[in-house]
Protein: ClpX-type ZB domain-containing protein
Organism: Kribbella albertanoniae
Amino acid sequence: MPDTALRCSFCGKDKSEVERLIAGPAVFICNECVGLCEQVLSDQPTPSFPPLDGKSDEELLADVARLHLSRGQLETAVQQRVQHLRSRSVTWARIGEALGMSRQSAWERFSGEE
């Protein structure tokens, strides 16, 4: 069964791992990432991200899992928008072009119940 928990689109943390999760159009951002953005915008020093070589296997595995799970939210948002475009009679060719794929590839990936 796929994970349906809401996650920050930036750091991948589950909503239960953060204080707040703010919804945007097809994305979510947690209070921790907002705080980091505030630091960047106010020209305050920001913590650097550790290089991948500096992370343990466990940390990298946790990163991969979080990133993989947050991908589902984005896929759902793209699917909804493609369905909405199709309901407006936008062609598969135009949808494919917007997604950088052929008309056939777009149809195969997103047609579902058409």
Remarks:
- The two ends are 24 Å apart (CA to CA).
- The CA atoms of residues 81 and 87 lie 10 Å apart.
